[in-house]
Amino acid sequence: MRRKVSIFGSTGSIGCNTVDLLLRQGGAEAYDVKVVTGARNVKLLAEQAVSLKADVAVTADISLLDALTEALKNTGVEAAAGPAALRDAAKVKVDWAMSAIVGSAGLTPTLEMAKHADILALANKESLVCAGELIKATCASSGCILVPVDSEHCAIYQALAGGKNADLSRIILTASGGPFRDWSLDQMAAATLKQAMAHPNWDMGQRISIDSATMFNKALEVIEAHQLFDVTADQIEVVVHPQSIVHSMIEYNDYSVIAQLAAPDMRGAIGFALNWPERPPLPVEQLNFGTLSRLDFASPDEARFPALRLARRVLELGGLAGAVFNAAKEAALDRFIAGDIGFLDMAQLVETVLENLHVKASQSSSLEGLETVMSIDKEARLMGQNWMPA
Ligand code: NDP
């Protein structure tokens, strides 16, 4: 019987890689594709829906419904649009769902996927950062299995296969260091959008690429690791590893360290999640240890990358501090992309918003419901939009 699958955020970087793997693994003959979703790129969304013979294609942008309907005319694929349609599409029962919408826009559909999918392949780390307790509680009650797609967390998940979370002494998250790994603070202060988007190792969406340059992406991953593997801030170490070959490591109480290595290609982690618990061959480069001459590791410089310190502050505060942090970070990113604030201003904005809302954030929990999460997200976002550099 064909596996029922849905892909949320199919037109993005993770989404396109997921579609590529599905097509290579038999496409519509092997998979009964229920839903594909995008936002602005309706042309690509329609092409994907047709090539995978999906039941429905949903654009999050309601103003693009006519364009999507036109692109899908006489194809047999239904067109839908808007947040409510996206949410309904996430309620369709499937064997496997990919959550790859970028940002907190992915939270509501991810929560529905956690209720209605047997396996949730989670790339949208923001869901866990904003509402980790709620997502985990939802999976626990529905029986949904969460398989991380973020390469670092997928690496830890794989490394943990032979052991128990309770025996972990440390998680070592690797970070490429991004394009500004060796830049001075003065150089970083003048960094342009184009420079911030030029990731040295990974080919990713615009927003996560800039988040890698500030190391806000790594900060989100620290919070994600805390949520996924039940480890404290003290047990999570970040190391800069410029080659991006070691995707992360775990250390047990006996100081034995287990690492997962692979070429830097997201199809490795996506393929792992898609095929779990099987491990068929994937279209990724095989490592050649004869030519791989060195693997370097160094401690990150938190004076240049304050996002890591802020992630620890989020874990110390608990509650909804992750939602505040993420919303402020998204507001800062929007403003940097718009040319409104400088590269280094982003961390200052996030720190100010986090400290302004820290009491309220630490006294609430995502278990109170999505409305509580969205309300503090809105407040933090607004504060971030109005923040002025000193
Ligand atoms: P992209 O920006 O490439 O793609 C984002 C996807 O979300 C697109 O399908 C986009 O549609 C859709 N989208 C954008 N805005 C909205 C919205 N408001 N509502 C609904 N859908 C929307 O992102 P990535 O693929 O890079 O990242 C996706 C997620 O995966 C993120 O959470 C990221 O942190 C995580 N991730 C990504 C990695 C990577 O290698 N790219 C690695 C690890 C994690 P459209 O393009 O049609 O506008």
Task: Tell me what the structure shows.
The chain is of the alpha/beta class and 390 residues long. The protein is 47% helix and 16% strand. It has 18 helices and 11 strands. The model has no long low-confidence stretch (mean pLDDT 97). The chain has 2 domains: 3-148, Rossmann fold; 157-263 and 295-386, RNA polymerase sigma factor, region 2, helix turn helix motif (Rna Polymerase Sigma Factor, Chain: A). The protein has a 7-stranded parallel sheet with strand order 4-3-2-1-5-6-7, sandwiched between helices. Strands 9-8-10-11 form a 4-stranded mixed sheet, covered by helices on one side. It has helices at residues 13-24, 27-30, 42-51, 65-71, 83-90, 107-116, 125-142, 151-159, 185-189, 193-197, 206-214, 216-229, 266-275, 307-317, 321-337, 345-356, 358-362, 370-386, and strands spanning 3-8, 31-38, 56-59, 78-81, 94-99, 117-122, 145-148, 168-175, 236-240, 246-252, 257-261. Bound molecules: NADPH dihydro-nicotinamide-adenine-dinucleotide phosphate. The site of NADPH dihydro-nicotinamide-adenine-dinucleotide phosphate has 28 residues, from helix 1, helix 7 and helix 11.
